[in-house]
Design a protein that fits this description.
single chain, alpha+beta, Glutaredoxin, 22% helix, 111 residues, disordered C terminus
Length: 111
């Protein structure tokens, strides 16, 4: 069962950025779209701008930006980048399970 299939569970997500750069804005737009499609009404996004508050990077051990941190539900998960690869984000957040079979979508492709 993926996390999205658990009824009533609220999600707390933090997106670490450095100012309003094109990459940061794209990461937020991609995250918002994914949340609306898969977690509608069950999520909260907190934007942490490390230019304004650089000390906040220590708490979640942020080494690159943008970085998405899933605080709730546990366990904590991190995804680095602009979140444009929706499939990888869904798997990374455990909103979608990984297809592991040969020839399946997202698997090894046809041999």
């Amino acid at each position: 069962m993926t996390e999205a299939e658990k009824p009533g569970e609220n999600w707390e997500l933090r997106l670490y950025v450095a100012g309003q750069t094109p990459k940061s804005l794209k990461a937020f737009a991609n995250l918002k779209k994914i949340c609306e499609e898969h977690l509608k009404g069950r999520y909260r996004i907190e934007i942490i701008d490390l230019i304004e508050n650089p000390k906040l990077a220590r708490g979640d051990q942020i080494l690159a930006i943008p970085t998405l941190v899933r605080k709730l539900p546990p366990p904590i998960r991190k995804i680095i980048g602009d979140l444009s690869d929706t499939e990888k984000v869904l798997v990374g957040l455990n909103l979608k399970s990984v297809n592991r079979g040969i020839g399946e979508s997202g698997g090894w492709g046809s041999l």
